[in-house]
Amino acid sequence: MGTLEKLNQESKYQIELYKSQISSQQEQIQQQEAKCKSLRQQLEQTRAELEKLKQEFNRSIEDKVTKHKFELEILEDFSRKIGYTFSYEELFHSMLEHLNELVPCDVRGGIITQDKNCNIYLESNRSLSKNLIAEIREKLVNGLTKINGWNLSQDSISLHQIDHKKVISKEDEITEIGSHFLVPIIADPEEKKQIIGLLFIGDEKKECFSEDSIRLLYAIADRASISVQQLRVLLAAESSRLENEKIRANLEKERALNNLKLRFVRTISHEYRTPLTVISLASDLLEKQKNRLSEAQKLKCWQRIHSAIQHMFNLVEDVLLLDSVEAGEMELNQEQIDLVSFCKELVEDFQLLATRNQTIEFNYSGINVEVYADPKLLQQIVSNLLSNALKYSPEQSKIIFQLTFTETGVTFCIQDEGIGIPVEDIPRLFEPFHRADNVGNAPGTGLGLAIVKKSVELQRGEINVESQLGIGSTFTVKLPLKKVERD
Ligand code: ATP
Ligand code: MG
Predict the structure, then answer these.
(1) Which is more confident, 475 or 93?
(2) Which CATH fold would you assign to the domain 81-244?
(3) What is the C-alpha separation between 28 and 22, in angstroms, rounded?
(4) What is the number of the ligand closest to the CA of 427?
(5) How do the domains of the chain map onto residue ranges?
(6) How far apart are CA 267 and CA 163, in angstroms?
(7) Of 134, 221, 268, 291, which residue is 20 to 30 A from 386 by alpha carbon distance?
(8) What integer pLDDT is reported at residue 481 of this predicted model?
(9) Lowest-confidence pick of 74-88, 215-229, 232-246, 448-462
(10) pLDDT in tens, 425-454
């Protein structure tokens, strides 16, 4: 074999070698590519799984956040609402309502001690059997007794059952509790002092409450503890304020009574002095000068004694009348009255008594019907008002007495052109023995208007006064008198 041929053969061999090497490398590349492809597929799959996991994770976080947000909102709402409660009952109502939103369950309730009482509040979605109520009550009382070592008497425990939200039927009644949970309400939560109550949830189903439910129950109980503490402070402050007010009112009453007594003694002694002097002088005269006095003079003395006694008698009558009204002993004796005739007669009597050329004009308006009224009380009202109008008005003045029949009863209005009443005296005008400073020498004890006021009140009416100094006064009495129905 020539050299050329040898070289050619070698080259061929080399080429074959390279070819086989190339094909094996190509095979390797193909294998690698297949591997790469499968890896890429695996990667894709893993990425998709990861994406799914991520989405699930996000969703669960979102759910948790929404749930927590919802819980927080309810707890916040609860805190806000119980911040405004002024009684344990309100507090429990609000607490149980919020509890039901957070931990839906068949029965929820609680026990709380306040003063010497122990209250149990229960709320359920369905009606509860009597035995079950007794069982829950016992659970709560025993629970509290065990914790505090108290001996709660049965009389001190009262049960407040709050509405059943959806009472369906008697058959739907809950008779047994499958699971329940109790958490404490503490008097002074910060110092973890005495446990004064328990909060309770119960359900017919067994193992019904998750850790979450219990966590929420504790959150409600914690807030309730704070609120109970606030309520205790508030109620203590309120009760001491009421106590103080009571003491102040009693003192004020005592002071008013003492003033009244003082005014009574002063007025009576003052009012009695004049008639007593008259009686004393006239009887002296009758005794010592009896032979020198003419029959006419003797008669005059007897008349003076008589009118002085009458004056004293009237005064005592007034005081006794006022006393009987104030003691609630005065009874209402209603009868049918023709008011127009009744008033006309009184006006005629007073017109005869008017010595200073004063005139009383009587008018009435509306439909004149008979009414049911107490004649004695009516007489007290009209007589005292007419007597004042005459007494505190100048000579020749006019008094207008207007009677009006209204839809709701009758109105008496007595208007004079007299001295008027100082503004500062108006609020005290109806107090016994109160007289304004401008009365001058006009006699009086200050009892008339007090009697009028009581007589008006006894008939469930009202009295008003309008007055201007030096111009005159108007007294208006409204009485809701029942009208006699005509056939
Ligand atoms: P009495 O017990 O004899 O009636 P009084 O007339 O003084 O004595 P009230 O009738 O209670 O007592 O009246 C209380 C006071 O009200 C009077 O003293 C007077 O100051 C004032 N007053 C009442 N009516 C009038 C009136 N029409 N005009 C002005 N002042 C009046
Ligand atoms: Mg009077």
Answers:
(1) 475
(2) Beta-Lactamase (3.30.450)
(3) 10
(4) 1
(5) 81-244, 263-326, 335-480
(6) 63
(7) 268
(8) 92
(9) 74-88
(10) 999 999 988 999 999 988 888 989 999 999
